[in-house]
Amino acid sequence: MGTGKYIAAVFIGSCSYGILSTIVKFSYEQGISPSIVIVSQFVIGWILMLSLQLLITNQPRLRMKQAMLLMLAGIPTGLVGVFYYLSLARLDASIGIILLFQFAWLGVLLNSIVKKVLPSKKTIISLVLLILGTVLASDIGGNFNLNPLGVILGLLAAVSYTLFVFLNDKLLPELHPAQRSFYMVSGSLITVLVVFAYQLFDIINQGHIQFSWTNSIFLGLFGVVIPPFLFAYGMPHIGSSMGSILGAAELPVAVICSIFILNEQVTVLQQLGVLIIFLAIIIANVRFAKRKTIQEL
């Protein structure tokens, strides 16, 4: 029972990421450029995270080294969005999401290498089901647009997400989640500003800036505030391997949002893929909960 709240926190954080694609689609339909979308997302998210940080009292004062470590750990978070958005400019969305979701097995592999322990049979079964469910839910069809640079960028997004999950598990877990998240998001914001600096100056010089406060606030809340905070809260208690599997909840939520918000048509195979992903998450968590209960006894 004790680990249930941490599993729920990471699961909700992963689901929060799934809402982003719908908001991004709205932004693109309004003529907002990708650079403005992602930069405004992190700027608004950083302001919201700062507000949360200021509300928390009695936090230990961080040493410069600790603050810098957390900010460096935030770089992969910013790079996930950068690499993923750039990959989608060169690949079909279905291919891009499959490349991103390689973080599921990459996270388990990284955790196994670091801990020098092979994953359990149920973890492997969960990963196989996740890969199958991802392929079905992404509606990959038979049309491939395998731009080499796009594939590389998509895989880099997966690697960045893997590092984000792993570092949330390992780095300064004793700190308050709001404090950890604030410094990590600060590192993410700096990364995004550096990457898109040229595009932003170009847009400003043209004097034509498309921007939506509503979209940016929702993107900042669901993409920059909620997931890092909940990951910082739950990940140290469940580990990066389980966190990687729970992260797969993002895709089913994205599909569900496309049905009820965007009114998009979803095939039976996509619905089956969503169910398989949830089944994989349930299998992994039943195994995890039993192991934790035995350890506590």
Would you mind describing this structure in some detail?
The structure is a single chain. It is globular, with a radius of gyration of 19 Å. Helix 1 packs antiparallel against helix 11, helix 2 runs antiparallel to helix 9 and helix 4 crosses helix 9. The chain has one domain. Helices cover 79% and strands 0% of the residues. The protein contains 14 helices and no strands. With 297 residues, it is an all-alpha fold. The C terminus is likely disordered. The longest helix is centred in the C-terminal third of the chain and has 29 residues.
| Share in β-strands | under 5%
Low-pLDDT sequence parts: 293-297
Count structural domains: 1
- The overall average pLDDT, rounded, is 84
Order of helical and strand elements: HHHHHHHHHHHHHH
Number of helices: 14
DSSP helix fraction? over 70%
Alpha-beta content class: mainly alpha
Radius of gyration: 19 Å
| Overall spatial form | globular
Secondary structure elements and pairings:
Layout: H1 4-29, H2 34-55, H3 64-73, H4 75-88, H5 93-100, H6 103-115, H7 121-137, H8 148-170, H9 177-195, H10 197-206, H11 213-238, H12 240-246, H13 250-260, H14 268-296
Key phrases:
disordered C terminus; globular; mainly alpha; 297 residues
Brief summary of the model shown:
By secondary structure, this protein is mostly helical. It has helices at residues 4-29, 34-55, 64-73, 75-88, 93-100, 103-115, 121-137, 148-170, 177-195, 197-206, 213-238, 240-246, 250-260, 268-296.
